[in-house]
Design a protein that fits this description.
The complex is a heterodimer of chains A (128) and B (122). In chain A, helix 1 crosses helix 3 and helix 3 packs antiparallel against helix 4. Chain A contains 4 helices and no strands. By secondary structure, chain A is mostly helical. Chain B starts with a helix and ends with a helix. Classes of the chains: A mainly alpha (128), B mainly alpha (122). Chains A and B meet through helix 1, helix 2, helix 3 and helix 4 of A and helix 2, helix 3, helix 4 and helix 5 of B.
């Protein structure tokens, strides 16, 4: 161990996954830290409500921002979990079940998150 | 079989602790991310449902968890920069321990004021 990350895989899908973790990590530096700063430091749950989100989502900018962050963060996180499972879960049945759950969770949460970001339509609700 | 202690000990120096914290904060942030996707989805049920969720999140226990979450994301981000530097610029390996301390110093410098600011709003 020389303080670096995982050894760089030789080729194939594992090499792409390795590169993806670094590239998405760099993009998430901007996306996740800006998101945290705006939504959890400058603003916070005391001022955020339905109206706040409705205003924020009235132009495509933050929807695009959130959609990119959703996909990059979830795939980055689940691929990290996949690495941890491969490192520690040795029995074949458990390993298969764990990896299968990661793909199912990934599919369900990407679908749910994208649906919310793309279809949120505040005017459907009577605003007071 | 790997014994429990062997999971916790590799070479026992800065790099190992940085690596372990990277995994723990990564898993913690992932768990929060899944919850966060599910909770924000409630906005599709309209203002009443969504705003009642936010009332729950205004409880101090969630506000303090939010401060911890910010720390986990910040550490993971800074240590991720360190990992990426060493991966793409192998000469940095010769100062890898100094880089761990650099991560720690930047973390403390950024996190303490941020955490105090976030806690002051509770």
């Amino acid at each position: 161990m020389n303080g670096s990350g995982r050894a760089r895989p030789e080729s194939g899908i594992e090499l792409y996954a390795w590169v993806f973790m670094r590239l998405s990590g760099i993009l998430l530096l901007v996306l996740a830290l800006v998101h945290l700063y705006i939504m959890h430091v400058v603003n916070n749950v005391a001022v955020i409500d339905f109206q706040f989100v409705a205003r924020r989502y009235s132009t495509p900018f933050w929807r695009t921002f959130d959609l990119m962050m959703l996909w990059l963060a979830l795939i980055h996180g689940l691929n990290g979990l996949r690495t941890v499972v491969i490192d520690y879960v040795r029995p074949r049945g458990w390993r298969f079940a764990s990896l299968a759950s990661i793909y199912v969770i990934g599919f369900v949460f990407l679908a749910l998150g994208s649906l919310v970001i793309l279809t949120f339509e505040p005017s459907r609700f009577a605003m007071k | 079989m790997v014994k429990p202690l062997e999971y916790l000990t590799y070479r026992g120096r800065e790099g190992q602790w940085a690596w372990m914290l990277h995994r723990l904060t990564g898993l913690g942030v992932l768990l929060f991310l899944l919850i966060h996707i599910a909770d924000i989805a409630l906005i599709g049920w309209g203002p009443k449902v969504f705003d009642s969720l936010l009332v729950i999140y205004r409880a101090p226990v969630f506000r303090v968890s939010e401060v911890l979450l910010a720390g986990a994301v910040l550490y993971h981000a800074l240590n991720g920069i360190r990992i990426t530097i060493i991966d793409f610029w192998p000469a940095a390996t010769s100062v890898h321990r100094k880089l761990v301390y650099a991560v720690a110093i930047v973390f403390v410098a950024v996190y303490i004021p941020t955490a105090l600011y976030m806690l002051s709003g509770i």
